[in-house]
């Protein structure tokens, strides 16, 4: 079987190729613009609520409230966390994967590119100071994991989003150096009429399309047991 090319794993086109789907998208546009404005207003209130609620209550209520924004989450199998696991690893589909997974299970995801500040915090990233070298990032993450009661880290070893159709990018090994075992997760994303993610598109534009389109479905699955480096 021929290995997939890098280009085949990326999504370069937002809109469908067939004329019927394009016509449906055009006819839907007035509704989409209305939903966009309504969801921006509602989303601002959801953000304020999420800032004051404790984690356990927040995740339950946020899964309900984000459905109003058109984001639906499901788990293909009941997610049971192994208490010894401190690292989740997942394929990378959209800029909002870490937000969605955190609604399902308690976790924190660092940003390797977003500088610390309000925007980084508002997007739901774990702030670790000014991004530096990979070695500095690893040391910061190890210090985080050493703290008692800290939620598991959610990492995306691909370090880039893909279309999820052909395969995975080569995993960066640094994510596996932080712990003796990791819990694999898989994400599958579905959206009508347009692609869930286009390579190279800014996250603000992706947020626009998420609020514009009727719904986006994220489905998470987890392995039944963690993977250990000693095995």
TrEMBL record:
Coiled coil feature spans: none
Key words, A-Z: Membrane, Transmembrane, Transmembrane helix
Gene Ontology CC terms, in alphabetical order: endoplasmic reticulum membrane
Entries under PANTHER family matching the protein: ANCIENT UBIQUITOUS PROTEIN (PTHR15486), LIPID DROPLET-REGULATING VLDL ASSEMBLY FACTOR AUP1 (PTHR15486:SF96)
Annotated SUPFAM superfamilies: Glycerol-3-phosphate (1)-acyltransferase
Tree of life domain: Eukaryota
Keyword hit for Transmembrane: yes
GO biological process: ERAD pathway
Chain ranges passing through the membrane: 20-48, 207-227
Protein name: Ancient ubiquitous 1 isoform X2
Organism of origin: Pelobates cultripes (Western spadefoot toad)
Location(s), subcellular: Membrane
This protein's record includes keyword Transmembrane helix: yes
